[in-house]
Amino acid sequence: xxxxxxxxxxxPLYQQIRNQIVLAVGKGELKPGESLPTVRxxxxxxxxxxxxxxxxxxxxxxxxxxxxxRRKGAQVCPLKxxxxxxxxxxxxxxxxxxxxATAKGLTKEVFLAACKQAAEKMSQKEE
Amino acid sequence: xxxxxxxxxxxPLYQQIRNQIVLAVGKGELKPGESLPTVRxxxxxxxxxxxxxxxxxxxxxxxxxxxxxRRKGAQVCPLKxxxxxxxxxxxxxxxxxxxxATAKGLTKEVFLAACKQAAEKMSQKEE
Amino acid sequence: xxxxxxxxxxxPLYQQIRNQIVLAVGKGELKPGESLPTVRxxxxxxxxxxxxxxxxxxxxxxxxxxxxxRRKGAQVCPLKxxxxxxxxxxxxxxxxxxxxATAKGLTKEVFLAACKQAAEKMSQKEE
Amino acid sequence: xxxxxxxxxxxPLYQQIRNQIVLAVGKGELKPGESLPTVRxxxxxxxxxxxxxxxxxxxxxxxxxxxxxRRKGAQVCPLKxxxxxxxxxxxxxxxxxxxxATAKGLTKEVFLAACKQAAEKMSQKEE
DNA sequence: GTGGTCTAGACCACA
DNA sequence: GTGGTCTAGACCACG
Lengths: 127, 127, 127, 127
Hints:
4 copies of one chain form a homotetramer.
Chain A: H1 13-27, H2 39-46, H3 50-62, E1 66-69, E2 73-76, H4 88-103, H5 108-120
Antiparallel strand pairs in A: 1-2
Helix pairs in contact in A: 1-3, 2-3
Chain A binds a DNA duplex through helix 3.
């Protein structure tokens, strides 16, 4: 479990931790059901306060990425079988990104190629 | 120039203003070369402190979306003829979004369809 | 004796066990005087540590729902003939619930209808 | 803004603060749109750390009771016009309370009378 | 001025 | 052992 934090970034540490874990889950480096380090362990590993990790875990839990079990610590939430399409918040972020690309002069084709490239890095759900 | 701000959102006002302007440029509602309201004008229109608008404009300038001229005020930056691909920061945001989608159980196909849908809302560069 | 536990809930296990038993008594699935499984039996059935079940039983005893006898094990406390009204702690919880409902915009009528609906699920004391 | 905290209770302070504020909103002591004390002010008033109040406010925000505005601080969330019935979580808590009452020997009539009494303490939405 | 973040260290509840 | 809570104080971002 290696997380890279940028202490000089203006993104809060707990947010960076959250992002890195989401990335790891998306890429399949963390599999559904897999256990994460304990709060204290991770805090000590990456050199931050345990409350900061705690906040990141709580955020991930509230977003539905993690399950937190008092006995086993935190683990990646198993995927639900039926999952519908993207939610409104997701589309809003995606639309903003598309606008940034367009405003920068990228064509639709280049944007979609970039999307595809990003998707390729992720692991696919097994059928 | 109509911007929708959510005063109780946890996204900073200057960030919301920046996002709305990027969206407007992406969708073609603001065309390259077009002038934007002055800082004071916009601030008065949307009822925020002019420092806040100032910050948004400065951010947009630093990101390359706006040109700020003391005489002409702010205007949308004309597109460069040759434009390379997406930059690293953009890809990072896109990858995070792809990871969120994958971690939520969306398939690659659904994600790419959403990307395409977002791209459709944007205006195309004229040939 | 079937109890549904949610291991990833933030409600402590012993509290969940306590709640399920109170529900079963309220609904009449457990009758006054009826015996409950032993601590070890129940712990083994639902797959938790017996200390956890022990804690739940002790809590239920202290709240007056169970009688614990070293010979007969735990049994549902028979109802007293004369029973006074709700106690202070109960009213406090009920008032908080009413406040949550009101603050969410539910009218008094809707709240009382929900109360009635909840009461219908319970078994009535025999005359 | 007077909150009574019980330092020896096993209910976390931030939870007690949250409950007291919900009660105040339900009873109409805090009206929709009304401003709450600042985090620091309330923390100093009731003698707790400001992070504790912060956590309570964040919880109330996430539950939809408060709006937090960087400029004006926290204020009671105005009610939405259309509000449907009680949600599942609410019914679960209410059902548990009904079970507790029944298991204690209260009749349905007594329970409903208690519900009505609790509802009377609340303020009604104005038509 | 506000809320938000973070730290270092403590204590407690749960299992 | 775990996560959860709390403190006292600091610094920063926002407006």
